[in-house]
Amino acid sequence: MSSVRPAVRTLRSRSMAGPALALTGVATAWMAVAALNPTDSGSGLVLCPFRLLTGLDCPFCGATRAAASLAHLDLVGALDHNALFVLVILPVAVLAWAMWAARAWRGRPAQLVTDASIRILIAVTLGWWVLRLAVPWLGSSAG
Fold first, then answer.
1. Confidence class of residue 112 from pLDDT cuts 50, 70 and 90?
2. Other C-beta atoms within 10 Å of 87: how many?
């Protein structure tokens, strides 16, 4: 029985490697965004290829600045930059990661994303895009 325990620990540590690496990568990127602290100071730098080509906001314009605002505990600023990121994308990503980590901890394979959930996320994203293009104050104030 004692030989079974190390095998379980080894299996668990291997199965948790993916969620742990993903969390480390996201935390590192978030710390970099917080340190760089992108602002609307009019630097003129536009990182969004869609906005660079069209002058219009994509559904994700402002998400980097929203992440920086959240890193500085500025929820209102984050919502102002991109409410979709704060209210939908971030909670869904946290939930998906938690479910992945829980399944990995139990030694189960990661659950595949369903077609229905992908369709819902696409519909919500397209709806947000149309809304933020139609209502000027919902758009990104950068660039």
1. confident
2. 14
pTM, rounded to two decimals: 0.74
CA 22 from centroid of its chain's CA atoms: 12
Distances (CA, A) of 133 to 61, 65, 83, 129: 11, 18, 14, 6
CA distance linking residue 97 with residue 42, whole number of Å = 35
Q: Which of these, 75, 73, 68, 88, lies nearest to 132 by C-alpha position? A: 88
Which long-range contacts does 128-134 make (Cβ < 8 Å, 24+ apart)? 128/59, 128/83, 128/84, 128/88, 129/57, 129/58, 129/59, 132/57, 132/59, 133/56, 133/57
Size of the chain in residues: 143
Task: Select from 32, 48, 30 the least CA-distant residue to 143.
Answer: 48
Other Cβ atoms less than 10 A from the Cβ of 105: the count is: 12
Residue found under tokens 């990995």: 104
Instruction: Identify which has the larger pLDDT, 38 or 134.
Output: 134
Residue 107 pLDDT more than 70?
Answer: yes
